[in-house]
Write a structure and sequence with these properties.
Blueprint (H helix, E strand, L loop, with lengths): L5 E7 L8 E8 L7 E10 L2 H8 L39 E9 L11 E4 L2 E2 L12 E2 L11 E5 L3 E3 L6 H4 L3 H13 L7 E4 L5 H12 L3 E5 L5 H5 L5 E3 L6 H5 L4 E6 L6 H6 L1 E9 L12 H6 L3 E4 L5 H12 L7 E6 L3 H9 L6 E5 L1
Helix pairs in contact: 3-4, 3-9
């Protein structure tokens, strides 16, 4: 096919509110490097990383919950997930799915024409497990909020599936994040996993992937979203913030809390963990500052794991689960790429259960 010289793209011009996005219809189409492929984007999912990076929420100067709005206190020097400055202009979008249309001089030409999912993590493929060398697609490089994007050929996976591009674009960030969390916590069939924020993209992924490992799953979500959450297969569903969580659990022995919420309820979640239990975390959308009683931590022999940079295997395992039909997409809504601002506002407002995807 003929590759155009320009493309449509939503470009982030700086940290702040949604007005920092600019729509362009003549943005240069990127050129693949020697080991890269050029992808015509079919769909790209939204996630909290897009919101937090835009607003600079990752900066240690910010101590409030994820709101989606600009922060009055922000240090641009540590405003990304990795604690480094972000280069503008930037095309965000980590969850890109599309078709390879060209490759770099040293890349595999057999990839041309294949539908692929992009892995979120950028790696030094000579040292792929080194977290200090990791970056994120749509943060440290341009991502999928455009008609075309480039990616390292080792950081993509061809996908054989009857699912649409929009459905496939719900998996990479949410499900690989969830798989990494469960991997770090070593969840298996003997566990009972408590999942706050279960109606979100990562929460829904945690339900399915925990069940795939044979665990018992207790989900927490607002009651208006219980029907949607129930379709993902948890064993029980509780309100988002029960007045008495211990009473609501009715004697359940919680061995793992898998959390992306944090906030004021955090101490109650930790109190529910059985002796020897594990807490795994990959987010703090309700607030990063929590009350932590060290006595609960050490007297109950608890293990805490943070989970950000996942392994390449986590990504390829999720791709395998998709192809085997072992997990299902939780696609909430699609928007045209030109309406990214409206899509992200709906994501921030939690207007939908599951994932929101934009279509170039």
């Amino acid at each position: 096919m003929t590759i155009p010289a320009t493309m449509k793209a939503m470009v982030l011009t700086g940290h702040g509110d949604l007005d920092k996005y600019e729509w362009h219809e003549d943005w240069p189409v990127p050129q693949p490097g020697p080991m890269e492929v050029l992808i015509r984007v079919g769909a790209c999912g939204l996630n909290n990383t897009d919101v937090n990076t835009r607003t600079g929420w990752y900066s240690k100067a910010v101590d409030e919950a994820t709101t989606g709005g600009a922060h009055s206190e922000l240090d641009d020097e540590d405003s990304t997930w990795g604690g480094a400055p972000l280069t503008f202009p930037r095309i965000q979008g980590a969850d890109a799915v599309g078709t390879v249309v060209a490759v770099g001089d040293s890349a595999d030409t057999s990839l041309i024409g294949k539908r692929v999912i992009v892995a979120g993590w950028l790696r030094d493929w000579d040292d792929p497990m080194n977290r200090d060398k990791a970056g994120y697609f749509g943060s440290e490089c341009d991502g999928g909020f455009a008609e075309y994007t480039t990616a390292d050929m080792q950081g993509i996976a061809p996908i054989e599936s009857d699912l649409s591009d929009a459905e496939l674009a719900t998996f990479s960030c949410s499900y690989v994040t969830a798989e990494g969390m469960l991997d770090r916590a070593q969840v298996d069939g003997g566990d009972t996993v408590l999942i706050p924020g279960a109606s979100g993209g990562v929460g829904g992924a945690l339900i399915q992937l925990s069940k795939l490992r044979g665990a018992r799953v207790i989900a927490m979500a607002s009651e208006a979203k219980h029907r949607d959450v129930a379709e993902l297969g948890p064993d029980r569903i509780l309100p988002r913030s029960p007045e008495n969580l211990r009473s609501a659990l009715k004697g359940e022995k919680i061995t793992v809390v898998a959390d992306v919420v944090g906030g004021a309820m955090w101490p109650r979640l930790i109190d529910m963990l059985a002796r020897g239990g594990r807490y795994t975390c990959s987010g703090a959308i309700a607030g990063p500052m929590v009350e932590f009683d060290l006595r609960t931590f050490y007297l109950r022999d608890l293990t805490f794991t943070g989970s950000t940079v996942n392994t390449p295997q986590n990504f390829f395992d999720v791709v395998k689960y998709i192809e085997n039909g072992q997990i299902r997409p939780a696609l909430a809504a699609t928007y045209p790429l030109a309406e990214l601002k409206e899509a992200q506002q709906a994501f921030i407002d939690k207007s939908h259960t599951g994932n929101i995807v934009v279509i170039p």
